[in-house]
Write a structure and sequence with these properties.
Layout lengths: L5 H21 L5 H27 L5 H5 L31 E9 L4 E9 L1 H5 L3 E2 L2 E5 L6 H7 L2 H10 L7 E5 L20 H16 L9 E6 L1 H12 L6 E5 L20 H7 L6 E7 L3 H13 L5 E7 L6 H18 L4 E2 L1
């Protein structure tokens, strides 16, 4: 039973009901010290249950091991065969037409971090060993983890559906962490005196992927997407590293990081509106989606679209309502990946 599963929360609620019933039954039969102890137990159980539900909604701690600082959670799995010197045991393919999600430990020399990364491998990765595939980095929000994509947004099922329907080419999707500390929001930046997440995501993750996966290396085959904070990350990283990415899609991303990076760059080079105003705009394609009642995402996204000029291109998509929520991102997910795939190069002979 995982820490963020509905069953865990239901069990906690059952405990709250049980201790509350016990308090009512024993109130007249106990002295004041025992009553105080019973009330304390009820308060603690209610607080713990509320914390579990809050964690389930925000996905801050997806594993019990994350809560207690267990370095072995989540576990790293073997790398894939045939694409790097350290390749070993291949993952088992999924059912016909179904992609596979596997998780690896990605150590980055440039960024100085080592974090797990989940990877979606399309069914064709196993049936067409002669091909190298385009790549999309998919970045999660904050608070959150790559499991938000996997569990809440059901990315594997959505990608399988879009690929089978022909709306998307078979694509390898990388799901890295954007922070080494679940309580630290990096917004995928290089923080002064802190994590060098931008370097990790734009140098270490691509380098590892090219060494261990059967993917294309050319810029035309690389894209990046994200929701919420990950949406800002996708746009910001693509604009700062157009030599790495040819397209980016933002699901309810903002125009600025909303944190202090430590060098003031949240107002300049890590501020998308500032960058579009003060730097030459790159040859890049952006897809920007938001819900009309999500004020912060709406204002920032419209500002970015208004400031964009050739060779930068922008396509916008608006959901009438839903706020800043997984419900909105589930509606945007398929169209965003379809659009990205249309911008990227197709699978090619190895």
């Amino acid at each position: 039973m995982t820490i963020d599963s509905p069953a865990t929360v239901l069990l906690a609620i059952a405990v709250v009901l049980a201790v509350t019933a016990g308090l009512a039954l024993l109130w007249d039969r106990t002295r004041v010290p025992a009553r105080i102890a019973l009330v304390a137990v009820v308060v603690l159980s209610v607080t713990g249950t509320a914390a579990l539900e809050l964690n389930r909604l925000t996905e801050t701690y997806p594993h019990w091991g994350d809560l207690v600082g267990d370095p072995d959670a989540p576990l790293a799995l073997p790398v894939l065969p045939g694409a790097g010197p350290s390749a070993s045991v291949p993952p088992v393919p999924g059912p016909p037409g179904k992609g596979k999600i596997v998780t690896y430990q990605v150590a980055g020399a440039a960024g100085g971090m080592s974090m797990p990364m989940s990877v979606y491998l399309p069914s064709e990765y196993f049936t067409r060993p002669d091909l190298r595939f385009p790549v999309i980095e998919a970045l999660h929000g904050y608070p959150g983890t790559p499991e938000s994509w996997i569990r809440r947004l059901e990315i594997a099922a959505n990608l399988d559906r879009e690929i089978i329907a022909g709306r998307m080419a078979p694509t390898v999707v990388l799901l890295p962490y954007q922070t080494p500390d679940l309580l630290l929001d990096t917004e995928c930046t290089n923080m002064t005196g802190g994590p060098q997440t931008e370097t990790y995501l734009t140098q270490d993750v691509p380098k590892w992927a090219l060494e261990h996966l059967r993917i294309r290396s050319d810029r035309a085959a690389w894209g990046v997407t994200g929701y919420s904070a990950g949406g800002f990350c996708a746009m910001n990283l693509a604009l700062k590293h157009p030599q790495q990415y040819s397209a980016a899609a933002s699901l309810s991303g903002f125009a600025d990081p909303g944190i202090k990076v430590g060098d003031g760059s949240e107002k300049t080079t890590n501020n998308i509106a500032w960058r579009l105003t003060h730097h030459p705009q790159p040859d890049l394609a952006l897809w920007i989606g938001w819900a009309e009642d999500d004020r912060n995402a709406r204002v920032g996204s419209r500002q970015i679209a208004r400031l964009a000029k050739a060779p930068l291109t922008v396509v916008t998509a608006i959901v009438p309502r839903g706020g800043h929520s997984h419900a909105v991102w589930r509606q945007m997910e398929g169209p965003a990946f379809d659009w990205l795939s249309a911008q990227l190069a197709r699978p090619a002979q190895a």
